[in-house]
Amino acid sequence: MLTLDFPQGGTSASCPNFAAVISLVNDALLAKAKSPLGFMNPWIYGGAYKALTDVTSGSSIGCNST
Q1: Which DSSP string corresponds to 2-19?
Q2: pTM (2 decimals)?
Q3: Is it the case that residue 33 has pLDDT exceeding 90?
Q4: In this structure, what DSSP letter does residue 21 have?
Q5: What is the C-alpha separation between 65 and 61, in angstroms, rounded?
Q6: What gap in Å lies between CA 49 and CA 40, rounded to an integer?
Q7: Averaged over 19-44, what is the pLDDT?
Q8: Which of 42, 36, 40 is nearest to 23 (CA)?
């Protein structure tokens, strides 16, 4: 079991998790002989972004930031 001594969060944690969820959705679609989601930027910027949180400020522990 992997144990980390520091907290994980922010985009460093959320981006890989979001990508994993999209991969699972694509896998489920393909298993039902449907098309995968494909290139998502038009969908996201067309309005789906409202369901996401834009990180516009803050800092990261361990990156020499303030």
Answers
A1: ---SS---THHHHHHHHH
A2: 0.61
A3: yes
A4: H
A5: 7
A6: 11
A7: 93
A8: 36
Which residue, 16, 21, 10, 18, is CA-closest to 58?
10
51 DSSP assignment: G
Residue 49 DSSP class: G
**Structure confidence at residue 63 (pLDDT):** 61
Identity of residue 35: S
End-to-end CA distance of the chain: 32
**Distant-in-sequence, close-in-space partners of 11: CB < 8 Å, separation ≥ 6:** 55
Mean pLDDT over residues 38-49, rounded? 88
> What mean pLDDT is predicted for residues 2-12?
63
Alpha-helical regions (H) of the chain = 11-31, 41-45
With beta carbons less than 8 A apart as the criterion, state whether 22 and 29 touch. Answer: no
Gyration radius (Cα) of the chain, Å = 16
